[in-house]
Request: fold
Amino acid sequence: MQGSSCRANSIIYAARAGVSTIDSTMFIAGADDLSSPQPCNVCKRVIINAGIKRVFILKDNKIFEYDVQRWVKENKKDPFSDINN
Reply:
């Protein structure tokens, strides 16, 4: 059985500690559970459902900034699809 990723875990621990993630910003700078800092589909849903507004992802020495709430409003199927470009 596989545990949750560090991205989902960080949101879970914030909730357990009583820290709100509503309107927050998440920074992702690589992870030991994946070869890429790109969130998996489950983590994408967790990020959106946690009310996080912005995500910064460090990949290949480049920083990608995403406005998650705008993606939700625009009904994009995969808000992280351009990370592979």
Q: What stands out?
A: The chain has three helices and three strands. The longest helix spans residues 6-16. The chain has a mean pLDDT of 76. The longest strand covers residues 54-59.
